[in-house]
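One record is kept unedited as follows:
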Amino acid sequence: DEAATLAFARELVNRCKEALGERQQEVRILGPAPAPIAKLRDRYRIHALLMGIDGDLLRTAVGKVYHDSKPVEGIQWVVDVDPLSLL
């Protein structure tokens, strides 16, 4: 379901912002937004990008969100550190 996938992505981005706390201004967050190939094999794809100079800050924030998040039925999510392609 596209709406549920987008809502989950928004929740993850908000959690990342919370995990960054006062250092949120050091990170540029793009998205969530539909991926360039928005639907693949009957699954909707949403991207969110976190960009910053301090890799440890990003890893810590995303790691916290990743470990604190509970699986949602029908939604799979992946963290890609230093992606080579956004397709």
Remarks:
- The beta strands are 27-40, 43-52.
- The radius of gyration is 13 Å.
- Residues 2-20 form the longest helix (19 residues).
